[in-house]
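From the pipeline queue, job 12 of 40. The input is one protein chain; the requested action is below.

Action: predict structure.
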Amino acid sequence: MRAADTVERFDENILWFQSAQSFTEKASGAFRSSLEERGILPEESEDDRRFRTFLETLVGEAPIRAMIPALVERDRETAAFLVSIARKESSWGEHAPSKEGGDCFNYWGYKGTGSRGTGMGYACFASPEEAVDTVGNRLSKLIHEKKLNSPERLIVWKCGSSCEGHSPESVSKWISDVRSVYSKFVPEISRADSSDSRYTEVALSL
């Protein structure tokens, strides 16, 4: 086989994978249910289906919508803070770092590096799944191990070890804005705590 043919076939496979991924992400509601019945998509639990619908309604068509499948897999409290902080830090992905014209999927102002290195001084991830996994693990550790399980306690996400370099107004605004979204998740968190032991997961160490 010629090298050119190999490259062409590789490109075709990449395009097929991207189309399949996009198709899966867009499958929702009644259409997704139809795919599940036919065995094309794995069946969701009733709780996961309800939570996915809640997230879809909440975020609308914002870029973070592509992260919903990964968010549903997180414990509800971690997912709540992922969505709440992303709303404050990037308007759910509307204003986020990019690299070479591509989205870094970093909607939380997360420093460090991703599999694509850094973009605009922040971690640059290759996919929504990688972003939710990396940032979710960090948040889960803070929430479950460090017991920073409220917007007030999670101000460390904005300030680090001290808020001395930030104005009291900006600190109060961050807490207020994160709380305004987080409060919408309280019924979901309570329901998960009472019905599914999966959401008592032990946070992963980074």
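Job complete. The chain has a mean pLDDT of 84.
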